[in-house]
């Protein structure tokens, strides 16, 4: 992008000392170099990363190779497969790029090692949501598995999460968003204001929700509460009775023909919406942008009950040590240094280190994506495609407006196994 700042390149290549990776850490931490030392290429370090498709992006691997000389081997899976792989195949990866509700399941298994806060170069730039759960000092902490509740442990080897920030982070936060319903404004024929609207008989056979149990159940909860069918003590941690009431209602709606489909992947949601088979469904922000990029009207609709949020981060495999571990820290510090954050922000997600990301966005991009201002010129995707025309305003407004209206976070409940069993009954019904 013409007016996007680029990081400085052509850093001095230092000969690798016997202490190898330690020299890299020293160089980066000394302040003598403004960017990152490009010496990892000489050690031929490869880091194997897996996680969901939202952030396992080839462009990030390519930029990492160019800036650090570290080869990133990325594998993209769906959320459930990511949770399973993290626990059952701990030697198959070095970096786990997973959501915080997955971390709640995974970290107690001992397959990830906590990170030393003092080694995290941009720790003080992480948005407070991930440190104390509040966007601003007067914010209310949302229900569900809020990232800060599983963000810290007291010491290495600890299997339980710390109640307050410590010197040891379970994961470094990277990406998050406030999710809502996507709609086809040209096909719904009226204003959509509530999660309850997805159950309007007028949309029978033209609705869809996400088929990942831990996330879909939260959409179902937002719908149920909006309809006045139930008031949960905590949507993110339902009782068995609440789970039963929710799933029984969803089964009946399914048998009545309310749903067209249940999607698991980004592409499925895009195709359902672009084809017009579905006119209202749970969706991800970049999926809405993808439909719009095809020249089809699609809106990420703010709703009066608020948003369902999710957040993800990078975790270190327990087996990492020595030069490999040093390289992993270097990679994480590079990840939070701004280029990736700008890239994620331009896709409609949010960066966990907003301050560094701002340096890699034009003033117009920052105004549109983060401040909720009308675009001065065309808004381009990271790949350079026109996403929005000049004058457009982001659905839901600014970062503070959107993340300030989060009703619940994606979650793992105490009754998780029971919930998954009941959810699968709903999908099979």
- For the secondary structure, the number of strands is 18
CATH topology of the largest domain: D-Maltodextrin-Binding Protein, domain 2
Mind summarizing the main beta sheet? Answer: 13 strands, mixed
DSSP strand content:
15-25%
InterPro entries: SBP, TAT_signal
Organism: Allorhizobium taibaishanense
Keywords: Membrane, Periplasm, Signal, Transmembrane, Transmembrane helix
Protein name: ABC transporter substrate-binding protein
What can you see in these coordinates?
- This protein is of the alpha/beta class and 429 residues long.
- The chain has two domains: 21-170 and 309-336, Periplasmic binding protein-like II (D-Maltodextrin-Binding Protein, domain 2, 3-Layer(aba) Sandwich), CATH 3.40.190.10; 179-306 and 405-428, Periplasmic binding protein-like II (D-Maltodextrin-Binding Protein, domain 2, 3-Layer(aba) Sandwich).
- Helices cover 34% and strands 18% of the residues.
- It has 16 helices and 18 strands.
- The protein has helices at 21-30, 40-43, 58-68, 79-88, 100-106, 185-188, 213-226, 240-255, 266-275, 285-293, 322-335, 339-345, 354-358, 363-369, 399-403, 416-428; strands spanning 46-52, 71-77, 95-99, 112-113, 115-116, 143-144, 152-153, 168-169, 172-183, 207-210, 259-263, 280-283, 299-301, 307-317, 350-351, 379-380, 386-388, 406-409.
- The strands form three sheets. Strands 1, 2, 3, 4, 6, 9, 10, 11, 12, 13, 14, 15 and 18 form a 13-stranded mixed sheet that branches.
- Strand 1, helix 3 (58-68) and strand 2 form a beta-alpha-beta unit.
- The model is unreliable at 1-34 (pLDDT under 50).
